[in-house]
Design brief:
Two copies of one chain form a homodimer.
Chain A: H1 3-8, E1 14-16, H2 25-33, E2 38-41, H3 47-60, E3 65-70, H4 76-85, E4 90-94, H5 102-107, E5 111-116, H6 119-128, E6 132-136, E7 142-143, H7 151-161, E8 166-169, H8 175-183, E9 188-191, H9 193-196, H10 205-213, E10 219-222, E11 229-232, H11 235-245, H12 250-257, H13 261-267, H14 291-310
Parallel strand pairs in A: 1-9, 2-3, 3-4, 4-5, 5-6, 6-8, 8-9
Antiparallel strand pairs in A: 7-11, 10-11
Amino acid sequence: MNKISKLFNIKYPIIQGGMIWCSGWELAGAVSNAGGLGLIGSGSMTPDILREHIHKCKNSTKNPFGVNIPLLFPHAEEFIKILIEEEIKVVFTSAGNPAKYTSFLKENGLKVVHVIANTKFAKKAEEAGVDAVVAEGFEAGGHNGREETTTMVLVPLIKKAVSVPVIAAGGIATGGAMLAAMALGADGVQIGSRFVCSKESSAHEMFKQKVLEAKDGDTMLSLKKLVAVRLLKNKFYEDIAKKELEGASPEELLELLGQGRSKKGMFEGDMDEGELEIGQVSALINEIKPAKEIIDEIISEFNQAKNTVSGVEL
Amino acid sequence: MNKISKLFNIKYPIIQGGMIWCSGWELAGAVSNAGGLGLIGSGSMTPDILREHIHKCKNSTKNPFGVNIPLLFPHAEEFIKILIEEEIKVVFTSAGNPAKYTSFLKENGLKVVHVIANTKFAKKAEEAGVDAVVAEGFEAGGHNGREETTTMVLVPLIKKAVSVPVIAAGGIATGGAMLAAMALGADGVQIGSRFVCSKESSAHEMFKQKVLEAKDGDTMLSLKKLVAVRLLKNKFYEDIAKKELEGASPEELLELLGQGRSKKGMFEGDMDEGELEIGQVSALINEIKPAKEIIDEIISEFNQAKNTVSGVEL
């Protein structure tokens, strides 16, 4: 049995990435019902809202699901308490030091997975006692590493660096890419952008449509002087890019960024002034479907691609 | 039989990328003798030197080999004449408009492959009549596209966009990555960085050593305001990066760049002031070997990875 399926007691080693404003209980529940692992993205929630999503997710599925917590987030500690009270079994941590909470979380019965983008943090996470790492490449949407290492290079590097299971993320929206990730040594995959364009995602319809229209070159890693984030190009992105080309300071960029940009874009549908986080793989996404159909399609493509490469005789 | 092996009449669908200062007749001949397709990298040669390398390559192998020509290069037209006079059968063109010479080259009996980094140029190349395209991702060393699309995303995109065979490049140094490229839809692979660290490469020994020592995060896409190029970090890179952060103009960057930087670094071994072009995958390269051993190892890893993924039942 696959290491990741076994670790989480799920049918397919497919994790739905926890994404701000896009992955509430409805998406997480649907993915878990379809045999993957759904994650509630807590990064855009208040403690009350997180608790509500956990309750609704429990009601929507009998299967395991988890919560993603960005550790640098102001509510992180409160969220961890909520997870323990609610007897959540799986947490994906990101954007912060894995040494801080991992042992505490594990003592309280949670499986802990940390998201990394380089060898150094993969080793740190392993030393902290995580059950697995997500190796997230440069092509992924949203927050991203400074090293700009792509999935193709990062996955085999991390596989060599640690002995815990490795979940590949970044650039994966199809079964072919899932097979590619496994050929690189991954034990499972985390998929974000593709699930933004699911029926159950809480992304604004305007944002979903804009993702469907995206072509290659339409996303770019931005705001590297603050926290690097991959954005879909729009007026807000262009304003930032212009400032950056002129050599703007972190302070100037923070001022332009202001407050509430991601909610405005991804949740409220302001396509000009909002921040739109999505991966490069948006160029390959052309349809909004229910999460179950997405997963079934990925598995069918995976098996097809497996048959194709099995036939290559070298 | 594999489309790329058939197109070039070679044993394995492995192309050795044409690289300035690193891939002369000795490397190209060794790769072709080992069953891949060796390419002489003409971008750092004068017409006389190119002719000499072609003669020596003909003497070193009975198998097909080719020449890479960057079309924006001042000698491009003269090089094309030499290829025809010398009855070369394969040319890889890059960095320029594929419409300019493709029909002329094909009328003169050459197979023509054009290197692209986006959908638009892949379609342009197909319309110009090329026999195949190289889809080169962001992680690749040396000159690179502006869109920053990674191999993981670019290969399936290009596969959908054109019907000619697709050769994946960028991030490929092992048989596992070769299988991953094929799972993404590639018909063959082009490998550069790994062959820089071959016994037969003409890279300076100091440069080869520095590539072996490279870790993740040690290369970066640089000089985006001129022609984007992936560089190994050194003093020269840091000087450029500092200027870029301050918002330097293309003119200021050109002045800092000066003349002969790549020769100084890659061929003459000046590790501080020279320009060192290499891919992200340098982080996975740990040994200098003869080209034949590299190819044999890649094929053996490919078959091993194929067996592993064949066993994944989903």
